[in-house]
Design goal:
This protein has 227 residues and is α/β, with parallel strands linked by helices. It has 2 domains: 34 residues, no CATH class; 131 residues, Rossmann fold. Helices cover 41% and strands 28% of the residues. It has 7 helices and 6 strands, in the order ααααββαββββαα. Strands 1, 2, 3, 4, 5 and 6 form a 6-stranded mixed beta sheet that branches. Helix 5 packs parallel to helix 6. The longest helix is centred in the first third of the chain and has 33 residues. The relative contact order is 0.12.
């Protein structure tokens, strides 16, 4: 009886061992099926480094030696292209730069005077220049680049029966400015006061023009006094 019980127990044990072996085998197969294949890294494409070109010289003002000295050769070509594009002038930008009130040094105002028309001897032009030079803080200059204001005068002789009865002075004041469009600078003038004076003598015209200009310059003087 003991042998039978032992035999049965041994058989059951053998069966259990067999199931265990089968179970381990299945587990190993499943684990083997689920293990992913090892990942092979892809070889990355080579980065193109920045190189000097005539466009760099034109836009950034750098020679090939300066290009390396400033370390731009360490940029990628894409980064250099972005830098060049950002430095190029925008054709949509339009700038107008003019002298601001109060920027004249020590209250000095530089005026460019031009006189044309019926003044063959230049006497009237001389009288106008002298009258304007006598204004407080005014210096007459010969170049628009040095001027804060401009005064353009055209003289017309008034006659009757071939006799001179007086003179008319048409005038226009202006403010010299610099206009910049797409990086290109041009000298322009903003038009100011336009008017006409008539007098029997040139000296009278000179005094009228000087008085008008004195009033026209007040904004510059006021600005200079408050700065």
């Amino acid at each position: 009886m003991k042998d039978r019980i032992y035999g049965i127990s041994a058989g059951v044990l053998a069966s259990l061992i067999g199931l265990r072996i089968i179970s381990l085998g299945l587990t190993g197969s499943i684990a083997s099926a689920q293990t992913p294949a090892p990942h092979k890294p892809r070889s990355s494409s080579r980065t193109t480094m920045a190189v000097w070109s005539p466009d760099v010289q034109k836009t950034l003002g750098l020679s090939s030696d300066d290009f390396k000295a400033d370390g731009l050769n360490k940029l990628t070509q894409a980064q250099l292209t972005s830098l060049i594009n950002s430095a190029k002038p925008d054709p949509r930008k339009h700038w107008l730069v003019c002298p601001a009130s109060g920027t004249t040094p020590s209250g000095q105002i530089h005026v460019l005077l031009t006189v044309a028309g019926d003044d063959s001897t230049g006497a009237i032009a001389g009288q106008i220049r002298q009258a304007i030079s006598g204004l407080t803080g005014v210096i007459v200059v010969d170049s628009v680049a040095n001027a804060d204001r401009t005064l353009h005068v055209v003289i017309q002789e008034q006659t009757t029966a071939k006799r001179t009865i007086g003179f008319t002075a048409s005038y226009l004041t202006g403010t010299p400015c610099t206009e910049e469009v797409a990086g290109k600078k041009t000298d322009v003038e903003l038009k100011g006061t336009l008017g006409t004076y008539t007098d029997a003598k040139g000296a009278g015209l000179a005094m009228d023009l000087a008085g008008m200009l004195d009033q026209d310059l007040q904004p510059l003087r006021t600005g200079a006094a408050t700065h």
